[in-house]
Amino acid sequence: xxxxxxxxxxxxxxxxxxxxxxxxxxxxxxxxxxxxxxxxxxxxxxxxxxxxxxxxxxxxxxxxxxxxxxxxxxxxxxxxxxxxxxxxxxxxxxxxxxxxxxxxxxxxxxxxxxxxxxxxxxxxxxxxxxxxxxxxxxxxxxxxxxxxxxxxxxxxxxxxxxxxxxxxxxxxxxxxxxxxxxxxxxxxxxxxxxxxxxxxxxxxxxxxxxxxxxxxxxxxxxxxxxxxxxxxxxxxxxxxxxxxxxxxxxxxxxxxxxxxxxxxxxxxxxxxxxxxxxxxxxxxxxxxxxxxxxxxxxxxxxxxxxxxxxxxxxxxxxxxxxxxxxxxxxxxxxxxxxxxxxxxxxxxxxxxxxxxxxxxxxxxxxxxxxxxxxxxxxxxxxxxxxxxxxxxxxxxxxxxxxxxxxxxxxxxxxxxxxxxxxxxxxxxxxxxxxxxxxxxxxxxxxxxxxxxxxxxxxxxxxxxxxxxxxxxxxxxxxxxxxxxxxxxxxxxxxxxxxxxxxxxxxxxxxxxxxxxxxxxxxx
Length: 523
Description:
This protein is an alpha/beta fold. The chain has a single domain, classed as TIM Barrel (Alpha-Beta Barrel), CATH 3.20.20. The chain has helices at about 5-10, 65-70, 95-100, 105-115, 135-145, 170-185, 215-230, 255-260, 285-295, 320-325, 325-340, 370-380, and strands at about 30-40, 45-50, 75, 150-155, 195-200, 235-240, 270-275, 305-310, 345-350, 385-390, 395-405, 410-415, 465-470, 475-485, 490-500, 505-510, 515-520. It has a nine-stranded mixed β-sheet with strand order 15-14-17-12-11-10-1-13-16. Strands 2-3-4-5-6-7-8-9 form an eight-stranded parallel barrel. A hairpin with a 5-residue loop joins β11 (about 395-405) and β12. α6 packs parallel to α7 (about 215-230) and α11 (about 325-340) packs parallel to α12 (about 370-380). The protein is globular.
């Protein structure tokens, strides 16, 4: 439910320019998989923002769908009350009004959100269980656990809530400490949910989540991080969920320098990226390399780099629905998650997974096209031993192969994406009053953005000629099943044949955008 906060603001200062994207030919791509060459483990990026239970009344419960997609981590951001520490929502909030123009729906969000915040009364005693409103958050956290996913707990507030710093930093840290005790140590008739990741705040540099100073942010993070570590040193504590990942300044270099100078724990640094300015699936990997280099240079070689929000576009308005719910986004997402395999990004969390604000599902829980991409990537977890693949590229034709540990299954996933011809950076200007207390739009002219890769020419991307050698069952018979995701197909079975021997050759058209999962199983 985050609007185009990141990319829309950036677009205010970036001029539109097109790509020359005409395919050079109509030939197929030659791919080769060596099933006898294991090159490590397939990494899981099956993580999403968005709870599996309805964030707003009338939306579907998608617990079963999360299981089917094998979602293994859920970030607790923008849950509109539950998991928020001290959020207060107002019916007249300009950001919330922009996001939810319908008065009746917005009124329900405000009512339910204010009734769901964990610590609603700042005069209350943080040591007393009666001071906490755990019920709504308990339901959400346990629903996430019910899907089999791990919780990535975002400390702070949802979109449209108050942005002011807490009135008492020590009390805020004590509250967060007791929240962790409730969910990890059973405090206040609590749980033992083993929540490891605790992310501090969300996008503080754009003022729609944080209207305090950077110095206040540093001080509050330090107190909160130390409070969490005091109850369990093994917890992973980090920040800042930065909106503009390459934007230098207070919430990047200066924040890292503060942590070094004051010896503040920082187990991970988190950041966001949406491809509104390029539609390029390789952006996340490129930005990740720069973030990794920065962390290493600042002395945080052991700290993780976490991409806690990513997507094709941060514009979740109705005009973007055809793209975000369609196969173009599906192929984009598939390419991103395959490219992250070889990146320096430790974790990536898609925004967003539920049925709210152009999520992965419809009002009745039906899959939109991008949900099938998660299902295909989830299936790759059945063959976790990563195999060597040659012939793919970083322009959009992405491929991933794996073998099961028992050697009886080999899978190949191909995601074929192409930046639309003549693509122009997505421009969306948020209303000026979205920024609280009259705060101005950030001066983006001083920020650094990832340069677009120019001169991309697509070739041999109309299909694939695939050869798989050294199959582990040697001369035994095996089945070949192909599942395809296109504009007209929803990862359905399109072919099933039986072959034998230690080698397989397949040739099929797969023009962009499209995705195909090929499953070989010993009979």
